[in-house]
Amino acid sequence: MNSKIIKGILCAALTFVMILGTVTFEAAANKPDINMSSAHSKIGYPVYLKVLRADRKVKWSSSNTKVAKIDSTKGKHKERATVKCLKGGKALITAKLGKAKFKCKVYVKKKAKKKEAQIVYGECVYISSSGKKYHRADCGTLRAKKFEVQKSWAIANGYEPCRVCNP
Q1: How far apart are the first and last CA of the chain?
Q2: For the chain, domain boundaries
Q3: What is the pLDDT averaged over residues 6-16?
Q4: Which residue from 2, 33, 55, 152 has the least number of CB within 10 angstroms?
């Protein structure tokens, strides 16, 4: 008799725990939230934010409008926002839904600096040790040992273009 009572109490307790667990899980699933807590972007590229499960109008704001500003909002409750990245730095985008606030840190990467001027090499041609003409690499008249040089160097040193390959 004791084992039947214990089994009944244990079964009732497990049933209660299972019901309580599903109720809290469903309540947590219906809470509003923002789709990302931080975002990285470049100047000129947008960031798309959304308040999930919004049941009333959302008000969007930016802590630094020089870096990132709210470009447009969409949806029944304006729950989707397009953030325009204007300048390198960081901005905190806030979505207010009643008393609740949802925040997303937006990091905007500065434009890469222009690379320093690189030495631009001219077209490469080939000369032989015995001739005074310059050639392309696949020229049939170039039989001796060939050396690769810049075309401008070959012209400056008196070499003339080959009439067969015409480099």
Answers
A1: 106
A2: 33-109, 124-161
A3: 76
A4: 2
